[in-house]
Structure formats: structure tokens, C-alpha cells
Automatic annotation (TrEMBL):
Gene3D superfamilies, sorted: NAD(P)-binding Rossmann-like Domain
Protein name per UniProt: SDR family NAD(P)-dependent oxidoreductase
InterPro entries membership: KR_dom (IPR057326), NAD(P)-bd_dom_sf (IPR036291), Sc_DH/Rdtase_CS (IPR020904), SDR_fam (IPR002347)
Keyword terms, alphabetized: Oxidoreductase
Family membership noted in the UniProt record: Belongs to the short-chain dehydrogenases/reductases (SDR) family.
GO cellular component, one term: membrane
Positions of region (Disordered): 262-306
Pfam name, any one: adh_short
NCBIfam families membership: PRK07109.1
Length: 337
């Protein structure tokens, strides 16, 4: 058992995808996990997973876009489980469409869940942790916090906002000499059920931009960050490092590359699903989707960046520079074709 053994850890978006993998990993660490999401069936199955892995879990249904629901859930958690040591934000929603095809209501809802959900979770956690002078908050970010891509304007905007918001809060905590710490984990494309339940206006089935990683890769990094929140940011996946470095070195080249490939690379040859969408209502209210999506055969189970980001920064930067150089060379070759 690790440092989270017996600690109360809150996870939003706990019923499926990355959040589901995170609560399983926390169970292996012996944590006492408070699971927040909307879907009754998914939440119940996730709590069972925590117990199977060796921890204990309790479910709290709440819409993270609603501050009062998040606050009341946190108050119940502290009353029933004890002081919250760690708060992990993973909940999100999205729309796969060109910006011109997204309605104001859809954009507002995506922003409310994917950005304000993190804001409200962070605010509630800080209100409880600051008086105690201890605690950790982990924000689940994305390579898209640094680089926007086509068809995901609402999601990319929210992830950029989370990064800026988190940096502001971190500096305030440092200025106050607070013992509460906040960190970001920037993820690559992950094989989750979101591509089955996301609101899509595309003709073909949406997919994560390769290379794709399994949710357990993300979960291990997020739990490690919860145990070591003193580092301001963790990068997961070679593609994340390449994206961040390429955007820093040659953003115009990345613009041109994404203009040519960004739309097709996010769609399979299959017809777009026309069933459930989780933008307004939980997709897992009556069905448990678990942690994995439908891309298991194409997904990586490990990421060297998870190990490297735990160690000396110069090693990571050297790898990042080399990865970026290779990525830029590849982009240049493709653009010349």
C-alpha cells in the first residue's frame, strides 16, 4: 500500500473512462474513494471495482457543472467518510463538430462541465483544505491544453482554460504559504468510451488521434501525481511531448499540418453513432461502459514519459526536444507531399 492508503480521495467523472481507471488504481493503493458522477449504474459498478481492488468506495451523484451539487456532495463526503485529502478532477463532456455547427447551448454545456466542473471542484476542495493547511488537487489535462485541433473547439477551449486557471490558483497558494498543492497531468489520446457517447455531428465515427493509450496509463500517472503533487505538471505519452514541443517551436507548421490531417485523423471508416449522448444526460444511467473504449487493439499499455516525468527535468526536456525535432521533420515531409 502507498501513501494514499486509508486516505479519502474524491474523483469526479468516476463512473467511466479515465475516472473509472483512476478509482481502480486508487483501490489498489488502499484509498477510501468518494466517486462523483451522474450515471447510477456506472457509479455503482465503479464502487464495486474499488472494493475488488482492495479499497473502499462510496458513490455521490452530482452534476459537476452545478456548484451547489458539488458543494453538497463534498459536505456529505466529509460527514460520512472524513476529511478529504485529495481531490481529482476528471469529469468532462464534449462535442465533435466544426465550430460553426455547434449551437450556443451545446458550447455552453460543454464549457460548464469540462471547465467550470474543474473550477467548482477546485473551489469546494480548497474551501475544505485551506483551513487545514494540507491537501492535494489533481487536474486531468490534455495535450490539447497547449494545442487546439479541429472538430474539438469547445473541448480545447476548456482545456486551455483549465491550465490558465490552475496556474493562477497555484501562484495564489504559493503566495499565501499554503500547504495545499495543485498539479496538472497532461494526457495524450486515451481509449475511453467517450467516443461511443460523445455528441457527434460528423458523418463518420469519431476516434482519438493516434497514438492511443489505455486508460490505465493515464490512471497510473494521475495517482502518482496525487501522491507527489509538488510538481506543477506531468506529461503522459510521447505524442503529448511532441505536441507541446512542436507547438512551442513551430506553431504555424502545426497549423498547416492539422488543417490537412486533423479532420480525417479523428474519424474512422464507420458510420457515426446516432444513439446515446452524455452532453445533457448521463450515458451510463442504466448501462455500465467501464474504462475502455473500442480501440483496445490499437492502444499502448505503457508510456515512458510517465517514468521520465517523475525524474530529472533535463532528461525529459532532452527527450522532448528530440521528439519535437522528429515530429517537425515528419510534419515537413508530409506537407511537401
Amino acid at each position: 500500500m502507498g501513501p494514499l492508503n486509508g486516505r479519502v480521495v474524491v474523483v469526479t467523472g468516476a463512473s467511466g473512462g479515465v475516472g473509472r481507471a483512476v478509482v481502480r488504481e486508487l483501490g489498489r493503493q488502499g484509498a477510501r474513494v468518494a466517486l462523483i458522477a451522474r450515471g447510477t449504474t456506472g457509479l455503482g459498478a465503479a464502487a464495486v471495482d474499488v472494493g475488488v481492488e482492495g479499497g473502499s468506495g462510496q458513490v455521490y451523484e452530482a452534476d459537476v457543472a452545478d456548484y451547489d451539487q458539488v458543494r453538497k456532495a463534498a459536505e456529505r463526503i466529509e460527514a460520512e467518510m472524513g476529511p478529504i485529502s485529495v481531490w481529482i478532477n476528471t469529469a468532462f463532456s464534449s462535442v465533435f463538430a466544426k465550430f460553426q455547427d455547434i449551437s450556443p447551448e451545446e458550447f455552453t454545456r460543454t464549457t460548464a462541465v469540462t471547465y467550470l466542473g474543474y473550477v467548482w471542484g477546485t473551489k469546494v476542495a480548497l474551501d475544505l483544505m485551506r483551513p487545514r493547511g494540507a491537501g492535494a488537487i489533481v487536474q486531468t489535462g490534455s495535450a490539447l491544453s497547449y494545442r487546439g485541433i479541429p472538430l474539438q473547439s469547445a473541448y480545447c477551449g476548456a482545456k486551455h482554460a483549465i491550465k490558465g486557471f490552475t496556474e493562477s490558483v497555484r501562484t495564489e497558494l504559493l503566495a499565501d504559504g499554503s500547504g495545499v498543492q495543485i498539479t496538472l497531468v497532461q494526457l495524450p489520446a486515451v481509449n475511453t468510451p467517450q467516443f461511443e457517447w460523445v455528441l457527434s455531428k460528423l458523418r463518420r465515427h469519431p476516434q482519438p488521434v493516434p497514438p492511443i493509450y489505455q486508460p490505465e496509463v493515464a490512471a497510473r500517472a494521475i495517482v502518482y501525481a496525487a501522491e507527489h503533487p509538488e510538481r506543477k505538471e506531468y506529461w503522459v505519452g510521447t505524442s503529448t511531448v511532441a505536441t507541446l514541443m512542436a507547438q512551442r517551436v513551430a506553431p504555424a507548421l502545426v497549423d498547416r499540418y492539422l488543417a490537412r490531417t486533423g479532420v480525417s485523423s479523428q474519424q474512422t471508416d464507420e458510420k457515426s453513432p446516432s444513439g446515446v449522448s452524455n452532453l445533457w444526460d448521463p450515458a451510463d444511467e442504466t448501462t455500465d461502459y467501464g474504462a475502455h473504449g473500442t480501440f483496445d487493439q490499437r492502444s499502448h499499455a505503457h508510456s515512458p514519459q510517465v517514468w521520465l516525468s517523475r525524474h530529472r527535468r533535463p532528461v525529459l526536456l532532452t527527450l522532448g526536444a528530440g521528439t519535437a525535432a522528429a515530429a517537425l521533420a515528419a510534419l515537413g515531409r508530409r506537407l511537401r507531399r
